[in-house]
Amino acid sequence: MTEFVQDAAQRGARIEIGGERIGQIGNFFAPTILAAPPEDSKIMQAEPFGPIAACVRFDDLDDAIGRANSLPFGLSSYAFTGSSRNALRIQNGIEAGMVNINHFGQSLPETPFGGVKDSGIGSEGGSETFDGYLVTKFVTQMD
User: Fold this and answer.
1) For residue 41, what are the contacts with CB-CB under 8 A and spacing of at least 6?
2) How confident is the model at residue 132 (pLDDT cuts 50, 70, 90)?
3) Residue 34 and residue 5 in contact, taking contact as beta carbons nearer than 8 Å
4) Residue 138 region, left (φ>0) first, then alpha (ψ -120 to 50), else beta?
5) How far apart are CA 111 and CA 50, in angstroms?
6) 138: pLDDT confidence band, cut at 50, 70 and 90?
7) Does residue 44 have a pLDDT over 70?
8) Is the N or C terminus of the chain more exposed, i.e. has fewer CB atoms within 10 Å?
9) C-alpha of 24 from chain center
């Protein structure tokens, strides 16, 4: 996480809050908000798997969706909007295994968890858990 923050800051991003490790024992990192990290910064090109939110401006919704889909990853996405029309465009346009609109709570045992692209193939959780263990077979027979 430190490398993500340092790289973004060196490239001109502002650390609005956090940005540092918490203590010397364990793997604790302060919740962090990075404002305006450049497109070529590590935080904008890789999956951090930590408490870092990169906040960037976009020109319109097509720009935001295009930028999100330009990455080779697609595990989870989050969008906040007051427009049901934009919510529909986001859910249909974002290439991710999980799309969360107006909230952060996505992982429940009864719901599928998984990504697309380089973020994984398939899902675990929910009824989709069993898909990886099944072989679907279609059989026809004529006498």
Assistant:
1) 7, 8, 11, 13
2) low
3) yes
4) beta
5) 22
6) confident
7) yes
8) C
9) 28
What is the 3-state composition of the chain as percent helix, strand, coil, each rounded to the nearest 5? 25, 20, 55
Residues in the chain: 143
d(CA 11, CA 7): 6
Mean pLDDT, to the nearest integer, of 60-89? Answer: 94
Q: H/E element holding 34?
A: strand 32-35
Query: Mind giving me the DSSP string for 51-64?
Result: SEEEE---SSHHHH
User: Is this prediction's pTM over 0.90?
Assistant: no
Q: What CATH code is assigned to 2-109? A: 3.40.309.10
**Domain ranges (residues) in the chain:** 2-109
Query: DSSP letter at 82?
Result: S
C-alpha triplet 121, 124, 99: angle, nearest 5°: 75
Q: Where residue 128 falls among pLDDT bands split at 50, 70, 90?
A: low
* Top-confidence residue, 141 or 23: 23
